[in-house]
Design goal:
The protein contains four helices and no strands. The chain is mainly alpha-helical and 67 residues long. It is globular.
């Protein structure tokens, strides 16, 4: 969990230039979450995205994901 916080801090909050409250931040976070889960490979997942990992390793629950 600490690693995820560090990643979000370094790759989102430190480069985000918009408003820090309200709908603007909410939209930006949702966009970043999509990138984090479907575009950005993760070392801990053997360089797969979380979406790829779920589809390959847990296909029985991949359809339940909100990614």
């Amino acid at each position: 969990m600490e690693r995820a916080h560090r990643t979000h801090t370094e790759e989102f909050y430190e480069v985000y230039g918009g408003e820090l409250e309200g709908e603007c931040l909410s939209r930006a976070l949702k966009e970043w979450e999509g990138i984090y889960n479907t575009v950005r490979p993760h070392q801990a997942l053997d360089w797969r995205t979380p979406a790829e990992y779920l589809g390959l390793c847990h296909p029985e629950v991949a359809h339940l994901s909100h990614m």
